[in-house]
What does this fold into?
Amino acid sequence: MKLAGLIFGVVVCYAVPIAGLVLCMRRKKGVGKAFFAGMTAFVISQLLIRVPILQFVLPQFAWFTVLQMSPWAYGIFLGLSAGIFEEAARWIGIRFFLKGKKSVEYGLAFGLGHGGIEAMVLVGLNFIVGLGMEVLGQGALFPAETKEIFLAGGERLYAIAFHVGASLLVFYGISVGKSVRMLLIAIGLHTVFDAAIVILPSVYGVGQMGIWSYGAFGGVLTLAAGILVCRKLERGAGVEPGKRREQMEK
It folds into this structure.
């Protein structure tokens, strides 16, 4: 079963975003640019800016040490900082690198790139290492249990869903002239769902399955919201169905 869990994790982290990109490319040429823009947005905002600040800069300040003693304050701080950095990068990437693009496939590809590279780098590499150990008969040395492996794979699945949904919200806002409003909504959603990862277990004693369920709810909710607003975008404010795609290309 551990082998199945590791394979599941690799599929989620690598095959899902790549398959999503292929489907988007079949519907609309040129969306590969959006996918790589999404990847770049995550790498710069998280790996090159936010994470180094959290690990190397803020620990030098006494207030940050005090902040970590309060689950509520620390959870909200982590969630809000993740929301500001990632959603601002998402806004910049869509606003400037996808300028003039109206087809929803661009927003989908951007979100797949953002969530995909996060899954590949933060979790996917561990799955690959574990899979290699399992194939070589050293699976017992891999520290995670089967249940934890499946939950980790599932967590990446709903995380990708969240990033796709948030990207669609920001994409919609920029497309219809409501960029600030939708950016703030995306930051708010990001804050709420990330902060809960710290607050729920520390304050309310919520277990692993409870946190996973909450995250899945957040991912599905954000994806549904993104799809809903982009359907409005594709409807083109009353344009006849046969002309929707033509209008989106303009």
